[in-house]
Specification:
- There is one protein chain.
- This protein is an alpha/beta fold.
- The protein has 2 domains: 144 residues, Rossmann fold (3-Layer(aba) Sandwich); 162 residues, Dihydrodipicolinate Reductase, domain 2 (2-Layer Sandwich).
- It is 39% helix and 24% strand.
- The protein is built from 12 helices and 12 strands.
- The strands form 2 sheets. It has a 6-stranded parallel β-sheet, with helices on both faces. It has a 6-stranded mixed β-sheet with strand order 8-10-9-7-11-12.
- The protein starts with a strand and ends in a 10-residue tail after the last helix.
- The chain binds NADP nicotinamide-adenine-dinucleotide phosphate.
């Protein structure tokens, strides 16, 4: 059957994770797909950074060079922001490539368009890595909860915020000190705004909303509040009452509309998200038949995110007839 040629857009934390995971799990992928997966090209922004890739791998800043690769079948997208990720994914689909993305900012806004475009071109779009990192929530909902009427989804979708809240409570640290520790561990960016102001969790919630309810609430109507206004006194006062602050992303049906919020919420010990600690993410789904289930695990990081992307490949890949892979 030959080789499945794949390209990586972005070679940061996630891109490198996918590159290494494809190599370290070569046999498992081959057993599943019937062919070896080969990363043949990497798209980057800065041509002067040194990259740890094989000599046969094309490293380029020019996306057209990637599109021109004969027999390219899969594009992993792991760059940052709405553009150029969206345009690149659209073009890759038009070329007949399966697309697997980790880019939540892009997918929250353009997911519907990408999925429609992929359908029209007979290719697959995988987006497990956009939401809750390594926790297989997207494919669980898409494949295992197709008949259940899902009434509500409540989730912890930002590991950095959850880590900071855990540190504040366990070590009695003020917010700024807990944030500094998150940055030392590499959990929070130098500019942590997206995490601690709730924007990252908002994007992931919108992706879940489209999947579960077939649509998103009006973005302007969603209450989005980060954890940055919480003080150590707030956290300690809650602890004395046996409660914990959790940064909860919540979406549910309300009559004919969808309601959603992303904000710190006080939860009691019996709440499904009370015990989710550190950088973990968790998603609780309320279904008409299954009742309440919670999926939890690592919400970010090099290999958990790579895991989601190569599992997407394993689950969604099929050879497109006109493909001419060597
Ligand atoms: N990190 C995580 O744990 C995680 C988890 C889930 C999802 N994600 C998502 O995955 C994506 C990648 O995250 P990351 O943490 O890997 O980011 P990162 O470490 O900052 O890496 C970003 C990569 O994208 C490249 N890039 C940026 N803009 C580009 C452009 N215009 N054209 C070509 N390449 C460009 C960068 O090139 P240079 O190397 O030349 O700078 C870099 O290789 C993001 O959308 C993020 O939200 C991340």
């Amino acid at each position: 059957m030959g080789t499945i040629k794949a390209a990586l857009l972005g070679f940061g934390t996630v891109g490198q994770g996918v590159y290494e995971a494809v190599r370290s799990h070569r046999q498992q992928l081959k057993a599943r797909l019937g062919a070896e997966v080969e990363i043949v090209a990497v798209l980057i922004k800065n041509p002067y950074k040194k990259r740890d890739v094989g000599r046969s791998v094309l490293v380029t800043t020019d996306f057209e060079e990637i599109l021109a690769i004969p027999g390219l079948e899969v594009v992993f997208e792991a760059i940052v922001g709405e553009e150029p990720g969206f345009s690149y994914c659209m073009k890759a689909i038009e070329k007949g490539c399966h697309v697997i993305t980790a880019n939540k900012v892009m997918f929250a806004k353009y997911g519907e368009i990408l999925l429609e475009h992929a359908k029209a071109h007979g290719v697959y779009v995988g987006y497990e890595a956009t939401t809750a990192g390594g926790v297989p929530v997207i494919r669980t909902i898409a494949h295992q909860l197709q008949v259940n009427d899902i009434q509500r989804v409540q989730a912890i979708l930002n590991g950095t915020s959850n880590f900071i809240l855990t540190e504040m409570r366990e070590k009695h640290l003020p917010f700024e000190e807990a944030l500094a520790i998150a940055q030392q561990h590499g959990y929070a960016e130098a500019d942590p705004g997206n995490d601690i102001e709730g924007k990252d969790a908002f994007c992931k919630l919108m992706i879940l909303s489209r999947l579960v309810f077939g649509g998103q609430p009006d973005w302007k109507e969603v209450e989005v509040e980060g954890i940055n206004a919480l003080t150590l006194a707030d956290v300690e006062k809650a602890e004395k009452k046996g409660l914990r602050y959790k940064h909860i992303a919540d979406v549910y049906r309300y009559g004919d509309t969808l309601k959603a919020s992303v904000k710190p919420v006080l939860v009691p010990p019996e709440h499904a998200l009370y015990a989710i600690e550190g950088v973990n993410n968790a998603v609780t789904i309320y279904g008409s038949l299954i009742g309440k289930i919670t999926l939890a695990g690592p919400g970010a990081g090099k290999f958990p995110t790579a895991s989601a992307m190569i599992e997407d490949l394993a689950g969604g890949y099929r050879r497109i007839p006109q493909m001419n892979a060597i």
